[in-house]
Please model this.
Amino acid sequence: MAKYAGYIGTYTKGESKGIYKFTLDTELKKLDNIEAAAELGNPTYLTISEDNRHLYSVIKDNEDGGVAAYSIDENDLSLQLINSQTSAGSPPCHVSIDEALNLVLTANYHKGTVESYLTNNDGSLQPVSSIMEHKGSGPDSRQEKAHTHYAGMTPDGKYAAAVDLGTDELITYEVQEGKLSKKSVFTFTPGSGPRHLVFHANGNIAYVMTEFSSEVVVLSYNAEDGSFTQLQAIKTIPQDFTENNQGSAIHLSSDTRFVYAANRGHDSIVVFAIDENTNTLTFVEHTSTNGEWPRDFVLDPSEKFVVASNQNSSSLSLYSRDAETGKLTLLQKDVAVPDPVCVKFLHVK
Model:
């Protein structure tokens, strides 16, 4: 396939209208056809169903926040609103979907909550099933209370895993017909500020990016009781970098050979090689994101390319990816998108 299509979630505090669509031309090695796909407030994080029929976005609607469901037009990739579920207060910062469970999960940074929603056959969202509110704090000035930053299902489909930046915790919940109940809690080093999580394909290992300590924490996962145990913590920035840095996104190549993580401040993507026996990490390289404050990045469906979204410079950067070394090479920079946060490609079967 020569072209892959995707969507960009943004902040709408500036020029952005909402969600944008784009294409990656793998022959010309460029990002193109960037245009608005749906107008809505602060659709900072998106997720797309495996069948490419539905897109779910966090949404801010006046003084309310929540999640919105869209249908994807398979011809022109336009988005049509199906419905939304909102409540008073700030919108979530993360959304994920588990189609086997007909379940959408959101994480709300400002409220410190995890919320679950069941979906209908047409992709619409039912009213919220569970609202789990976290309690606690940490030593950093931004850890004055709970700040949930990620929520997604474990690969075995048994638990919802929620990462809380404010309390330095990874909390697992049992899921029964969309309802959540707390099962286990793993506590990170105080003040590390865990942010996002990605699982290894073996289902037994998780990698967590921390925002404050700028580390990737390697955890073993126990499917019996939903608990986690730390195996390693490795820095994502050079030892001699002393300026402000905040870790952001983390992603894994599907061959499970490399972990990629983004640094805001150092403005880089760090590459780690995964040991096939221990699943621990070894540093490979840093690559500049050629823009400011990379909030997220994504591997394209072929995994031969990586797209980085630089929030503060309102730009995307495109890289080629060497599958053998894991290293990235810049192909295109300064691709204009207002206040981009996350990038998601349509799935390829």
